[in-house]
Amino acid sequence: MAGEAIHVEICYATPEVQAMVALVVPIGTTALQAAQASGLTGRYPAIDLTKQPLGIRGKRVEPGRALEEGDRVEILRPLTADPKETRRRLAAKGKTMKERT
Question: What is the topology classification, in CATH, of domain 5-99?
Fold first, then answer.
């Protein structure tokens, strides 16, 4: 029956690879359940859903958050540098985040 399932996407990216999987899941599926169903953990062993946070369109969410039609779940990686410290270091050099390269 129409309306009993929703379309979502699950994304994972590293500097070397970007992967996205489109899924049709039952209403009530959580972000964690969708990430598990995506198959990305099998393709990318570095993914550990017990430790890595999840996001939806750039905003962190709890793994138990129920998804809505069109949500894009992102499997987030740990930061490699503290953004505040990076800004301080650049400011000391007279640069901004946009000029960091």
Answer: Ubiquitin-like (UB roll) (3.10.20)
